[in-house]
């Protein structure tokens, strides 16, 4: 009897183990460039009506139809079988009458480490392509390592306006005619009068922090005026005499008519020297649910998105701050749990990903971005005011590597968060961008905007600005926001054209922000900049060897309540306290001021015992510890706690940036 019981127990245990260890069942859908949308997509090998599909669009359709039929715990996989798969037109996923997916849908490669989704055709393959290429224009080309714009004139410098006028042509902000006056000797020498008379030109205007492209409508060779139409620049950054501009000669060739002469003349690239890819598509995915019917549970893993263009020359790129109107190759609206993990984006002519409206529990993690026309990740809807229905919530931008941004639209931020709740931007490395690397917020002063619970931590920001634009920050905040923490970041090497490249830049309307445990060095302006803000706490940071000083304030009378304590300010061969601290809004105490060769004004010697606590924490491109006179001072205003010793704490840099 005991043996029978033991056998029964053993049988039950075996059944339970099999049930618990059984793999998650999944619906597998296969896509191949040699497939057929008339097949079922259920097998990788073609047999009668069974076999891989030809398009991702059809794969999504089958996934949607199959989703309600799956059991709890099951999943859907879309396997892309090619090592390189062409997306010649946008893949659209729209929820109209129902929400989906109930089960997680993952798009990933089939039996290979990664798959490349491309929006371009190799120049050598154009003649054999079956696409209707005569209808497709292109405004960039790609090589394996670069994005190539239209050739700018002049190549290495700028023209400057001799005057500017604007005239209204109707009601509305876009009904304006612009008159850009140019120096004929300057322009004709660089371009040639005969080429200029061809009339197919565009103008690019660089004014402070704005970038604008316009197609030239006409040219008056007697008065030396270029005429355009569209939105004027703001009063903050006006077009006027002396503003820099470039001209580009526009090709009228389609992809079908592209030849070596077109590529050489307009893009300065030769197919005989390197493989050239010509974009046929500028949008990869358009994923759009609705407030009542959201799209859920989509994962993109181990996918490379490569060589998607940006068609802009027949319209304008308006002069908006942070290029906020520019869209993305992947647009995402009204979704839950749409994530990108271990993906690569390279050679994207516009922004890569934009979580636009009402996206929850979304993330971009462990991805790399290289040679971006605009930015990499964009979150939020500019100008949405206090509309809580369209806010993004629980957004994670973590451990991404971003290199070479703003190649087409230089005013774009590599990471840009306009509004939302519970945003984490952490462990990203941002290197080589034309404008502010990480930007958050929207609207000047008290313009309504909802942005709360934001963490910007452990990011490495380097080599931002090439001298093309002004008024930029390594980490930049603007407008109304609540509970923002900027901590444990390294920011270094920022440049401007004529003014303003600050490491951490807290701008108009920003409030309730904590800046702590950051290292900022070798910026062309100050390490820390604050302009018209309130309730800011800046503690335990290092600001070192920033050319314009370590701390700067834009407007004293509109700044309210700054706590500035336990920071280290170091300036080689200069006074690190080159600002006016005598303002009632500053509560400053127990900061350490160091200089190498001279004490500077208001500085007293610091004992080597006290200095030792801070000197090991300083980390810059130069050795800050070599034979310098260590000096320190407390500012001459009421202290927060005059009995407390300097309590600067070591900053851990071991886990900063992309890991």
Detail the topology: elements first, then pairings.
Layout lengths: L1 H20 L4 E6 L24 H11 L8 E6 L3 E3 L4 E4 L10 E5 L5 E4 L1 E3 L17 E3 L4 E3 L2 E2 L5 E2 L2 E6 L7 E6 L2 H8 L1 H4 L4 E7 L2 E6 L2 E3 L4 E5 L14 E6 L10 H8 L9 E3 L5 E4 L6 E7 L1 E6 L19 E14 L2 E5 L2 E15 L2 E5 L4 E3 L13 E6 L2 E5 L9 E3 L2 E7 L2 E5 L4 E4 L9 E7 L2 E5 L7 E7 L3 E6 L2 E5 L6 E6 L4 E6 L2 E5 L4 E3 L3 E6 L2 E3 L6 E3 L6 E6 L2 E4 L14 E4 L2 E4 L8 E2 L2 H8 L15 E2 L27
Parallel strand pairs: 1-2, 2-5, 3-6, 4-20, 5-21, 6-22, 20-23, 21-23, 22-24, 23-25, 24-26, 25-27, 25-28, 26-29, 27-30, 28-31, 29-32, 30-33, 31-34, 32-35, 33-36, 34-37, 35-38, 36-39, 37-40, 38-41, 39-42, 40-43, 41-44, 42-45, 43-46, 44-47, 46-48, 47-49
Antiparallel strand pairs: 7-19, 8-9, 10-18, 11-18, 12-13, 13-17, 14-15, 14-18, 16-17, 50-51
Give the key terms.
659 residues; mainly beta; Pectate Lyase C-like; 13-stranded parallel sheet; 9% helix; 39% strand; globular
